[in-house]
Design brief:
Layout (H helix, E strand, L loop, with lengths): L7 E2 L12 H9 L11 H14 L4 H21 L11 E5 L3 E3 L7 E11 L2 E9 L5 E4 L9 E8 L8 E9 L6 E3 L1 E7 L7 E6 L2 E3 L5 E5 L2 E9 L6 E11 L2 E5 L6 H10 L2 H4 L7 H10 L4 E10 L6 E11 L2 E2 L5 E8 L5 E7 L26
Parallel strand pairs: 1-5
Antiparallel strand pairs: 2-4, 3-4, 4-5, 5-6, 7-8, 8-10, 9-12, 10-11, 13-14, 14-15, 15-16, 17-18, 18-19, 18-20, 20-21
Helix pairs in contact: 1-2
Length: about 375
């Protein structure tokens, strides 16, 4: 697998218009940004893209012969043009980050070009994907959605499926100056066996803690993500699991959606009913409870997480809900959730009530968050 520090863009195959040299155009777009207060780096980013493409080989034979020295030559040209980022911090806008090239082992004949432009507290980074077999053809141009710039957090190709198609996973983070809270802005693309343009399959942008490890497992038919973000209890983080089945008809979230009953309760509350209906019992009352308790952000305290003595695999989770979206609950009542463990971290919401269930006596404390559960082996 290969990791990238930048963003995916789509390049134009034609040379720069009006006969201007692409490097001169890049300089002309970059330098004025260093003194500008009305910052728009779109033209600089496009000029960087055009310059890179003007320097790339035209076919696979030329790439094979030139690849070992190509990256160094590109960066030397940037440096000689005075575009390299200064060593001093807070250099602002109008510069270009290091250009890096990679040839993923999962995709023979492909080249991934990484580059970025400076945007204050970081770089608005780009990744260009080409297929050189036999002649160069640009297959993908994609960006993150951060307002103030975005860098690539990770990118991976899957191996090919039986038809020769591959999946590309790319995740971005928002450029910002201080906080460790960020967005895992990720997308999936399918690359066909030939020279077809990459097809966007799915994208999402959940919040995450950027200083915790993000685990990724990718195949032509599945993506598994695991990362840390806010728990229902304020000030704590929990493990989030996003697992998707990738098929010919699209992408579907599949189990697991949580790794312990208390986290399943939180996930059930913050995800839409369309996603949680299949993970709920048949009672119409559960749909009404979800409508009452659901919001993108739900805060509360776990009172207990108690296994039920007469219901094998069922756990009662008692939670005092204090905030449902913008609705603050001044004197919260304890809500009792019955969660059924179906095996292999697959859970189902069985029932919800303000009253405790007699089959689940006791008040076993909820698991603390000093050790986050994980599907990935610890290193």
């Amino acid at each position: 697998m290969f990791k990238l520090g930048c963003v995916v863009l789509f390049l134009a195959g034609a040379p720069f218009l009006f006969g201007q040299d692409e490097l001169s155009h890049l300089v002309a777009e970059s330098v004025p940004l260093r003194a500008s207060t009305d910052i728009d780096w779109t033209n600089q980013r496009s000029a960087l893209r055009d310059w890179i493409e003007s320097r790339l080989p035209r076919n696979i034979a030329a790439l094979d012969a030139d690849f070992s020295n190509l990256e160094a030559r590109l960066n030397e040209e940037i440096q000689q043009a005075g575009l390299t980022e200064p060593v001093t911090p807070d250099y602002g806008f109008g510069y270009v980050s290091k250009v890096t090239l990679s040839r993923p082992s999962e995709y023979p004949g492909a080249l991934v070009v990484r580059a970025g432009v400076s945007v204050g507290c970081g770089n608005d980074e780009s990744v260009y994907v080409y297929n050189f077999a036999p002649a160069r053809n640009r297959l993908l141009d994609a960006h993150g959605t951060g307002k103030w710039g975005h860098g690539v957090f990770d990118a991976q190709f899957s191996g090919p499926d039986d038809s020769g198609s591959r999946i590309l996973y790319v995740s971005w983070y928002d450029v910002q100056c201080g906080s460790s809270w960020n967005r895992l802005d990720f997308s999936l693309f399918r690359f066909g066996p030939g020279q077809e343009q990459a097809m966007p399959l799915f994208s999402s942008a959940p919040s995450f803690k950027i200083d915790y490890e993000v685990h990724v497992r990718l195949s032509p038919s599945e993506l598994l993500l695991e990362f840390a973000a806010g728990a229902m209890e304020g000030g704590f983080i929990r493990t989030y699991v996003l697992r998707y089945s990738i098929g010919a008809q699209g992408v579907e979230r599949i189990d697991p959606v949580a790794l312990q009953p208390q986290d399943f309760v939180h996930e059930w509350l913050i995800e839409p009913w369309a996603e949680m209906e299949s993970r709920s019992g048949s009672s119409d009352a559960l749909a009404k409870w979800h409508k009452f308790l659901h919001a993108d952000s739900v805060l509360g305290d776990y009172e207990f997480v108690q296994p039920c003595v007469n219901r094998r695999g069922v756990t009662q989770v008692g939670a005092g809900i204090t905030l449902i979206g913008d609705r603050e609950i001044p004197e919260p009542r304890i809500v009792h959730f019955l969660v059924k463990d179906k095996g292999n971290y697959s859970y189902e919401m069985s029932a919800i009530s303000f009253d405790s269930n007699d089959d689940c006596p006791g008040e076993t404390p909820a698991a603390d968050y000093t050790q986050l559960p994980s599907l990935f082996k610890k290193k």
